[in-house]
């Protein structure tokens, strides 16, 4: 597993921050997806002595248009195919995709944490019934989209990772994701997993432990990236906590991912808000990177 940060590669201070933390891999967030911008992003990451693991997600509005039945559908699909081809020509190995902003869960409150930190409480339930059939089947529109885009991704040598998340708009059951991969089973098709989604949605809905879920998809080679989020269940939802506040579960998660052979990007998500931190959460991210690095080093010596 490779500790990874998600950032804008055109911000010098962010690249310096990654260097200071000793993080070697970057998932880039870009505002434009033309070939020149993608090439410049990769060049800046590499000039900083870092490795570009991939791009976070295809533009969500464009994916939503590609999944629509309106007149914008064909142009959106063509635009996405062009972006995937450009990424392959530049040498970007992986792209995420989702049709809603599943990386931004619905905040339902804030609770105090240790040292007067602010723990964000997020809602973890909710299905997108428009894109998920009641019979747990993959929607025809999603299937049509993937049947058009996946051959282009294969030809370009670019892996497409469906980004699971805690907001609505996610396929939210193990059997639904299994169905997705049974219909579009290319080895270039996998998951960018939000670990909080695994522990609080996928596992409970299937009656599985989070280790079971990880083994299920990891054993099939479907886990391409992991966004690690530590959550504590509350009546209102799930509160974000520091990884050492549930250290056994964090260690078990890393052991489970490693046991499947996963060696891709491991990107820590936001921790509780610390005093005098930046809006991006530099202090909290630094703590999580350091803590996870120590656990990974321990696993190297005592697997």
Q: Give the second-level CATH assignment, the architecture.
A: Alpha-Beta Barrel
Low-confidence stretches: 126-137
For the biggest sheet, the summary is: 8 strands, parallel
Indicate the CATH topology.
TIM Barrel
Number of strands: 12
- Helical fraction equals 40-55%
Number of domains: 1
Give a concise summary.
43% of the residues lie in helices and 19% in strands. It has 303 residues and is an alpha/beta fold. The protein has a single domain (2-301), classed as TIM Barrel.
SSE diagram, text form:
Elements: E1 2-7, H1 12-21, E2 25-28, H2 35-47, E3 51-55, H3 60-66, H4 73-90, E4 94-97, E5 107-112, E6 118-122, H5 140-156, E7 159-163, H6 174-183, E8 189-194, H7 195-206, H8 210-218, E9 223-228, E10 231-233, E11 238-240, H9 247-259, E12 265-268, H10 282-301
Parallel strand pairs: 1-2, 1-12, 2-3, 4-7, 7-8, 8-9, 9-12
Antiparallel strand pairs: 5-6, 6-11, 10-11
Task: Provide structural commentary.
- The chain is α/β, with parallel strands linked by helices.
- It has a single domain, classed as Alpha-Beta Barrel (TIM Barrel).
- Helix content is 43%, strand content 19%.
- The protein contains 10 helices and 12 strands.
- The chain has helices spanning 12-21, 35-47, 60-66, 73-90, 140-156, 174-183, 195-206, 210-218, 247-259, 282-301, and strands at residues 2-7, 25-28, 51-55, 94-97, 107-112, 118-122, 159-163, 189-194, 223-228, 231-233, 238-240, 265-268.
- The strands form 2 sheets. The protein has an 8-stranded parallel beta sheet with strand order 3-2-1-12-9-8-7-4. It has a 4-stranded antiparallel beta sheet with strand order 5-6-11-10, with helices on one face.
- The longest helix has 20 residues, at 282-301.
- The protein is globular and about 50 Å long.
- Residues 126-137 have low confidence and may be disordered.
């Amino acid at each position: 597993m490779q500790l990874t940060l998600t950032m804008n590669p055109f911000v010098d201070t962010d690249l310096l921050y990654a260097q200071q933390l000793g993080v070697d891999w970057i998932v880039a967030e870009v505002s434009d997806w033309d070939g020149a911008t993608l090439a410049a992003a990769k060049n800046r990451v590499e000039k900083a002595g870092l490795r570009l693991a991939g791009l976070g997600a295809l533009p969500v509005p464009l994916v939503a248009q590609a999944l629509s039945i309106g007149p914008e559908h064909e142009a959106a699909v063509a635009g996405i195919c062009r972006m995937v081809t450009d990424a392959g020509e530049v040498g970007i190995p992986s792209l995420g995709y989702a049709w809603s902003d599943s990386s931004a869960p619905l905040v339902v409150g804030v609770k105090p944490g240790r040292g007067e930190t602010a723990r964000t409480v997020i809602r973890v339930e909710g299905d997108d019934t428009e894109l998920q059939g009641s019979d747990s089947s993959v929607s025809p529109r999603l299937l049509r989209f993937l049947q058009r885009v996946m051959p282009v991704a294969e030809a370009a040598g670019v892996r497409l990772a469906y980004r699971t998340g805690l907001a609505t708009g996610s396929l939210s059951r193990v059997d639904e994701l299994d169905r997705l991969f049974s219909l579009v089973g290319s080895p270039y098709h996998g998951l960018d997993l939000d670990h909080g989604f695994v522990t609080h949605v996928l596992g409970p809905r299937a009656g599985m432990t989070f280790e079971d879920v990880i083994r299920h998809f990891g054993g099939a080679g479907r886990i391409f990236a992991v966004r690690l989020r530590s959550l504590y269940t509350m009546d209102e939802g799930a509160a974000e906590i520091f990884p050492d506040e549930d250290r056994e579960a964090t260690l078990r998660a890393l052991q489970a991912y490693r046991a499947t052979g996963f060696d891709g990007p491991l990107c820590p998500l936001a921790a509780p808000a610390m005093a005098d931190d930046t809006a991006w959460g530099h202090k909290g991210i630094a703590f999580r990177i350091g803590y996870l690095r120590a656990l990974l080093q321990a696993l190297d010596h005592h697997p």
